[in-house]
Design a protein that fits this description.
Elements (H helix, E strand, L loop, with lengths): L1 H24 L9 E3 L7 E3 L3 E6 L5 E7 L11 H9 L3 E2 L8 E6 L2 E8 L2 E7 L15
Antiparallel strand pairs: 1-2, 3-4, 4-8, 5-6, 6-7, 7-8
Length: 141
């Protein structure tokens, strides 16, 4: 009986140790390797790993989608690999229109506003007659 209980305890210990090792080896950092079109503008990239949490479509002034993306930090701004992908997809930053944590990009006649939050980001597309940065987006969740 004692031998059987000891082997069960040993087996549980080995399984627990392997679980800790495997979970420790997985990276919680985003890979920044694959991008897909945003729900509000298919020609604007978002990391494939991002999870859509909220969206407002067909609003009279704007459409936006909010994505959760662990590891982003509002204070750090747009990560360099993401900036590179945005540029590679043909978007140009409009530095003069940036405000707070919102970065404005243009591609042809399209405008996209990217707002970085802690562990998430928002992609906002103002309607064509609304090219002004929508104020207050910095305080969104």
């Amino acid at each position: 009986m004692w031998r059987r209980g000891k082997s069960s305890l040993y087996f549980i210990g080995v399984v627990l140790m392997m679980t800790i090792i495997i979970s420790g080896c997985t990276s919680s950092e985003p890979s920044w390797s694959t991008f897909v079109g945003a729900a509000v503008e298919k020609s604007y990239p978002v990391p494939k790993e991002a999870n859509r949490t909220d969206a407002v479509l067909n609003n009279s002034k704007m459409d936006y989608v909010h994505y959760s993306f662990p590891g982003l930090r509002e204070d750090d701004g747009v990560p360099e690999p993401y900036e590179k992908a945005i540029s590679e997809w043909g978007w140009v930053e409009k530095v003069e229109e940036n405000t707070g944590t919102t970065t404005v990009y243009e591609k042809g006649k399209l405008i996209v506003q990217l707002t970085i939050h802690d562990d998430s980001f928002t992609v906002l597309v103002p309607k064509t007659d609304e090219k002004v940065v929508i104020q207050g987006i910095e305080s969104s969740p």
